[in-house]
Design a protein that fits this description.
It contains 41 helices and 34 strands. The N and C termini lie far apart (117 Å). Strand 31 and strand 32 form a beta hairpin. Helix 12 packs across helix 14 and helix 35 packs parallel to helix 37. The strands form seven sheets. The protein has an eight-stranded mixed sheet, with helices on one face. The chain is of the alpha+beta class.
């Protein structure tokens, strides 16, 4: 341990503080940024750049670009600084300006809390013209509350000015008091606070504030000052709470108590620049007689009791140092009139009669021609008693030690002088420290360091260190006093400031200081280049001399041992001898214990070296006096030696040279039958989990290091106990103890005997054994003899003393075997857990059977609760193995993958009644299996259940490698047969439906997920479950996006583009089309389920008997049965809207969907489907019907166009594989649109597209043949006009035929526009067939019947010519 310099605080906004105090160094601002200050009495600073401090970006080292002040200009040396002893307030002042920085806590980038100092107030402090700040001091005042006795309440800032004024401010810059005690400039302010006396005979010092003037010294009593400041602060708070300062000025003012102070006129010194108030001292009798004889001669009279005197020390010139003694009672204390000033950022008011002292005026007063200053009391002369005369040397500063016994003085010769305060002599001098800054650090001896050698009742020792900062050299040194060496040196910046308050908290006395543990910084170094405040930490033992500092020597030996243990190339024998000599040489028990622990935790020391060194240390301790030996060190050596011996013995048993004693092959009774039953599924599980995994070089491997072994075993109360650590460390320790036995490479009985003799409890050994077995599953499944070795180890551990309770009743559950079951049911290694369960079941059955035979007759059949627990546990483990094998299936390429989910009996029991179905549903999603395929698998499973074919034989049907689908089918059938209730078809489809809709919600672009979710929903047979799942899907995932799509389409009036769909709905236009189609299917399924609920009873959901204790969340199927019934008309209303939206998106139609409904219909949308809403009824507005009809006709037009394009391209895709004709007919009935009009429009569109055969099929359902015939007659004329007049291949025969046509027909044909035809080039046979259909539909008395006949003749003639 050595001195260290620690960062404890960081000052923010340092550049802004510098620019505020040094305006000449501030960058030039824009002309419009320079504005006048508002209000002549305003104390705040309103500069434009002052509010932009927090905009800087922190750098990597924690500083900001703003805080990196140029080192070339030592600006901080020109400022007056003061840091509160509590480190919560820093004042930086120059001339008439000052900035107050208060503490606050913030979190850095690494998440660590750190303290910072930020500007809380800044402004101008001076009130007199031409005065500037000459000295500042921050005094924390103790709180008077009972809950925080001895804690700081607030901090008072005392400022001395060149005009002689001393003013007192709050942390917010509010002026409390102002005193003019002398008309000369204030040179230095210093404070002395209460300190607890270390010895009974030490005089208790009083608190005081001392103010140094060039020729006078004023000391203010601390109690008087504390009371006055409290009264003034309360008065300020009372006045600040009044909004109107003018009204407050007329109120009654409580005058603060006057200040009690003494004023001494220091004589017989030419120049005084600094001082220290030592306090009250009393001479002993010898010094009293000596002084009396020197001053009065031989006949001088001596008083009976020595007088109490106040000692003051000054530095300057002529003499270099002066010592003043003021006898108590020689001067009466003066009572000052207190000038109380209240100031804030907006107002400044003075509420005392002495307001003229500060230059403030009342509004009702007329300003006098000349400012009046208060009366200054004369000083009491005080001659110098003696001094250190040195005509050429001039002192610069003096720094008193904390115990008032020594003082450090700096001079203009670059010397630092150490003075003995009591004797008044210089006892030491350092040279080469020009412009040095001094501070003191007092360190107390830690408790317990001398309790062995001395009495614990002795007082604690204290050591004092002098801290010297040499700015010219940029070095900070720590020296031991009085004649101690340099114990620390640090290289620091050349422009730092050493801050040493020299006092603590004001307002504390002997009563309130009881139990006082306030931590204050003694010395701080402030670096302006980084804004960091550093504290100096010094250990106590550095103050001890070499002869007495056994601890320092021991620390040196400890460092030497640490360096020795770090060397890797050292010879083991040399390491052992050196470590042994060092340990035996260390005297201090605590350090010796630390050294032993360092050696035992070293990774380079061999186990033999550790054993020999520990044995030697133990032997040396036993040879010493038992009363002088540290008991904890003796116990540590003894326990660690036993552990090292155990490590050595186990390591020797696991060496390859030692051959196992069990040479014969032992068989476990009954285990072959169990393995034959679970063998096929276990083999498949091993194949799926034998894939290589990633490992890292940092992973523990190889033999267990001895330091890891020692860290996990401890002796407590004479018993050896294993400390439970991370699973990896626990497994590593278990492998060290038992893996050799499990693999058949070590003698089982000898290892167990060694472990039993070590004192480790059988329960902890069992836990280690099971941990190794369960965590090294891959290696276990490859070893055939591991099962037999595990059975032997379990029997051996069970026979140990303390394993099985002798008083255990076989009808109760055994804690020993319950520990095995707990480990198996919690393990996610399904294969190893099942094998351990089978082996433990057989071992427990054998043990219980032998115990029962000794108590009961052999004729009785034995039944045990323990065995029943094992039967249930083994069945659960077999089920989990089958499920884990299914979950281990690798996903196909291109499907969403991820880590293989692991399950255990405990996790399944905690996952609730739907945990199994949820796991299988997630697997089905990862396998990307189609719903139709899974439905076929489940149907075959029902058939196989009827055939009662064993599950294990299904796994042996295909010996060759199967593809993914076959393996999925095989394992899924196996798991479904093991969980007939948890994986019932409806339950499985419900979970698959929910899993796919959840995955779709994560990625809405995958519309296929939602489509398959609806397909799984349709596969559910129970309408109750189907209704609940549909309602949950709609409320949870669908309705929000569905309403967004409807409002978006209503806003744009057409099928929206991709960008708008992604912005409002969260998916692209193609995905939105699929989404709306799935919404239609979902709502239709919901309506069908609601219709069938009353016809079928509510299904009863069951669980397997062994899984009946499952607790947790309810399954999706159970939640579905709890859903409320829906309102069928409201569901139909939403389904109608979904069909309209789907049609508009499918064919890119213009539509404002909500405009197709009246106000009732609009208000009913997106309501809860279980609520009853007012829906449209009765006749609808004809205009609304016309809009609906127009839209449905557009849908049919779009569908016909899609059908035509599909037939032209040879594709089977026709409008998204939706029967839009049926959809439109259904919509027409709901929207009160004539279905016959839609059919006529469809027939015309089909003929227009050239789909004559489809048109003839639809034509049979048309009722109004006359209107249809007139429409088709026009279309026939357009076809014939295209063939005769607009065809590019007109022949002479065609022209002759056109000339022979009747004039009426020619005129009619020329009026036709073939460009309206989607497919004008149609065969003449189709046109002839169409004319015949038209003639059949038109009556003979129809006006256009003759034109139809002429058209038939023209088509036949044209057909004959061609």
């Amino acid at each position: 341990m050595s001195c260290c310099l620690l960062d404890f605080c960081r000052v923010q906004e340092l550049r802004q503080v510098r620019e505020f105090l040094f305006p000449s160094q501030k960058p030039a601002a824009a002309p419009d940024e320079s504005k006048d200050q508002a209000g002549e009495n305003e104390l705040t600073w309103d500069d434009s750049d002052w509010g932009s401090w927090e905009a800087s970006d922190p750098k990597e080292d924690g500083t900001t670009a703003e805080e990196e002040v140029q080192q070339g200009v030592p600006w901080l040396q020109d400022c007056v600084l003061s840091l509160s002893p509590c480190s919560d307030l820093l004042v930086i002042a120059r001339e008439h300006k000052a900035a107050f920085l208060s503490a606050k806590w913030q979190t850095d980038d690494s998440g660590r809390e750190e303290m910072t100092l930020a500007v809380s107030w800044s402004g101008t402090l001076s009130s007199e013209e031409g005065e500037c700040v000459s000295s500042v001091i921050c005094i924390p005042l103790a709180s008077q509350k009972r809950s925080s006795t001895g804690r700081p309440d607030w901090t008072c800032i005392v400022v001395g000015f060149s005009s002689g004024y001393v003013r007192f401010y709050t942390e917010n810059g509010v002026l409390l008091l102002a005193q003019l005690l002398n008309e000369d400039p204030v040179l230095r302010l210093k404070c002395r606070t209460y300190e607890i006396p270390r010895h009974p005979g030490v005089t208790e010092q009083h608190e005081e504030l001392s103010i140094l003037y060039p020729t006078a010294l004023v000391t203010i009593d601390g109690f008087s000052l504390f009371q006055s400041l409290r009264a003034c602060r309360n008065q300020v708070a009372r006045e600040m709470s009044v909004k109107d300062p003018a009204a407050a000025a007329g109120s009654d003012v409580v005058q603060p108590p006057p200040l009690a102070y003494k004023k001494w006129g220091l004589q017989d010194m030419d120049i005084i620049v600094d001082h220290s108030s030592v306090g009250i001292m009393t001479l002993n009798v010898f010094d009293q007689m000596k002084n009396a004889s020197i001053l009065g001669g031989f006949h001088a009279s001596v008083k009976g009791s020595p007088p109490a005197m106040s000692q003051y020390m000054t530095v300057g010139g002529g003499p270099f140092t002066g010592f003043y003694y003021a006898v108590e009672g020689s001067s009466q204390p003066l009572l000052s009139h207190v000038a109380l000033a209240v100031a804030s950022k907006l107002t400044s008011a003075l509420f005392s009669a002495a307001s003229g002292w500060l230059g403030w005026k009342n509004k009702n007063e007329e300003e006098p021609g000349q400012k009046q200053k208060p009366k200054v009391e004369p000083a009491t002369p005080l001659p110098v008693r003696f001094g250190l005369p040195d005509s050429r040397r001039h002192g610069e500063s003096i720094c008193l030690s904390p115990c008032n016994t020594m003082a450090g003085v700096t001079d203009d010769f670059g010397r630092v002088t150490l003075l003995d305060v009591a004797r008044g002599i210089a006892i030491r001098m350092w040279k080469g420290y020009r412009d040095a800054q001094l501070g003191w650090v007092q360190v107390s001896e830690a408790r317990g360091e001398r309790e062995i050698a001395t009495s614990p009742s002795m007082p604690r020792r204290h050591a004092q260190f002098l801290v010297i900062y040499a700015p010219r050299r940029g070095i900070l040194e720590v020296w031991g006093t009085q004649h101690g060496p340099r114990v620390g040196a640090f290289t620091v910046g050349k422009h730092c400031r050493l801050l040493y308050p020299g006092y603590r908290l004001m307002g504390v006395n002997s009563v309130t200081s009881q139990g006082w543990h306030l931590h204050t910084q003694q010395v701080c170094l402030f670096d302006p280049t980084t804004g960091v405040l550093r504290s100096i930490t010094i250990p106590f033992h550095l103050a001890l001399s070499d002869k007495k500092s056994e601890r320092a020597k021991d620390m040196h030996l400890l460092k030497r041992l640490t360096a020795l243990l770090r060397s890797r190339d050292l010879d083991p024998s040399l390491l052992e001898s050196e470590a042994q000599s060092i340990l035996l040489e260390i005297k201090h028990p605590a350090i010796k214990k630390q050294a032993l622990e360092s050696m035992l935790t070293s990774k380079n020391a061999p186990v033999a070296c550790m054993t020999n060194v520990t044995r030697a240390l133990l032997a040396s301790l036993k040879e010493q006096d038992p009363e002088a030996v540290d008991e904890s060190l003796l116990q540590l050596c003894s326990s660690q030696l036993r552990l090292l011996q155990l490590y050595t013995d186990v390591q020797l048993l696991h060496t390859p040279d030692s051959s196992p004693t069990e040479t014969e092959s032992l068989s476990v009774a009954g285990i072959e039958e169990d393995l034959a039953r679970v063998g096929p599924i276990l083999q498949r599980y091993a194949e799926l989990n034998s894939r290589p995994s990633v490992s890292f070089a940092q992973d523990p491997g190889g033999p267990l290091p001895v330091r890891a072994f020692l860290s996990q075993l401890v002796f407590e109360g004479g018993e050896l106990r294993v400390v439970r650590g991370p699973d990896t460390d626990w497994t590593h320790l278990g492998s060290f103890l038992f893996w050799g036995c499990l693999s058949g490479q070590s003698p089982l009985e000898r290892v167990c005997e060694t472990l039993q003799q070590s004192g480790i409890s059988p329960q902890q050994l069992l836990s280690l054994l099971l941990t190794v077995w369960l965590n090294r599953e891959k290696e276990i499944l490859k070893r055939a003899d591991a099962i037999r070795n595990l059975h032997t180890l379990l029997n051996t551990l069970s026979s140990m003393k303390g394993a099985l309770d002798e008083s255990w009743d076989v009808q109760c559950i055994s804690p020993w075997w319950q520990q095995v079951r707990n480990a198996c049911v919690q393990s996610e290694s399904a294969g190893a857990a099942l094998l351990a369960g089978l082996v433990a079941h057989r071992a427990a059955k054998s043990s219980i059977t032998s115990l029962a035979e000794s108590k009961f007759q052999a004729d009785w059949e034995f039944v045990s609760l323990e065995l029943e627990q094992w039967v249930v546990c083994v069945r659960q483990l077999e089920d989990v193995l089958a499920l884990q094998t299914l979950l281990s299936l690798p996903p196909p390429q291109g499907s969403p993958g991820g880590a293989v989910p692991r399950c255990s009996v405990k996790s399944l029991l905690e996952s609730g009644r739907g945990g199994v179905a949820d796991s299988v549903a997630k697997l089905i999603f990862r396998q990307d299996a189609a719903p139709e395929m899974l439905q076929d698998i489940v149907q075959r499973r029902v058939a196989e259940q009827n055939s009662e074919e064993p599950v294990e034989e299904l796994l042996q049907l295909a010996e060759a490698e199967k593809d993914g689908i076959q393996r999925l089918e095989e394992l899924l059938v196996c798991v479904c047969q093991r969980f007939p209730h948890s994986l019932a078809p409806d339950v499985l489809w419900a979970h698959c439906c929910w899993e796919y809709v959840v995955q779709w919600n994560k990625d809405p672009e995958m519309g296929r997920y939602l489509e398959w979710s609806v397909e799984y929903l349709k596969m559910i047979c129970s309408p109750h479950i189907q209704l609940g799942i549909s309602s949950m899907m709609w409320n949870t995932f669908i309705v929000k996006r569905f309403s967004a799509a409807a409002f978006l389409m209503e806003k744009v009036g057409k099928a929206p583009k991709d960008r708008l769909c992604r912005r409002d709905v969260g998916m692209g236009d193609a995905a939105m089309t699929s989404f709306l189609g799935s919404c239609v299917q979902l709502l239709q399924t919901l309506m069908e389920a609601d219709s069938g609920v009353e016809e079928v009873s509510v299904p009863e959901l069951c669980m397997e008997e062994v899984w009946g204790s499952a607790e947790g969340l309810a399954s999706i199927a159970e939640l579905a049965l709890q859903q409320k019934a829906v309102h069928y008309p409201l569901v139909q209303h939403h389904c109608l809207l979904a069909s309209l939206l789907h049609a508009a998106m499918s064919f890119s139609l213009r539509l404002k969907p909500l405009s197709l409904f009246d106000s009732k219909g609009k208000n009913a949308f997106f309501r809860d489907l279980t609520s009853i809403q007012l829906l449209p009824s009765g006749d609808v507005d004809p205009n609304l019907v016309a809009i609906r009809q127009e839209f449905l006709m557009q849908v049919l037009t779009g569908w016909v166009k899609a059908v035509g394009e599909a037939e032209d391209s040879g594709s089977a895709k026709t409008g998204g594989q939706v029967d839009w004709l049926a959809v439109c007919m259904e919509l027409a009935s709901l929207l009160q649109v004539s279905a016959d009009i839609l059919r006529r429009h469809l027939v015309w569109e089909l003929y227009n597209q050239g789909l004559d055969l489809r048109a003839e099929e639809v034509m049979l359902e048309v009722e109004d043949k006359d209107v249809l015939g007139s429409q088709l007659l026009v279309l026939t004329g357009q076809r014939l006009a295209f063939s005769l007049l607009h065809s590019q291949t007109q022949t002479k025969a065609t022209m002759e035929l056109l000339a022979r046509l009747p004039p009426t027909l020619c005129t009619w044909l020329k009026a036709m526009d073939p460009s309206e035809l989607q497919c004008p080039s149609v065969s003449l046979q189709q046109s002839s067939r169409l004319v015949c259909r038209v003639i059949e539909m038109l009556p003979e008395n129809h006006a256009q019947y003759s034109i139809a006949l002429h058209l038939l003749e023209a088509v036949d003639s044209l057909q004959e010519h061609k």
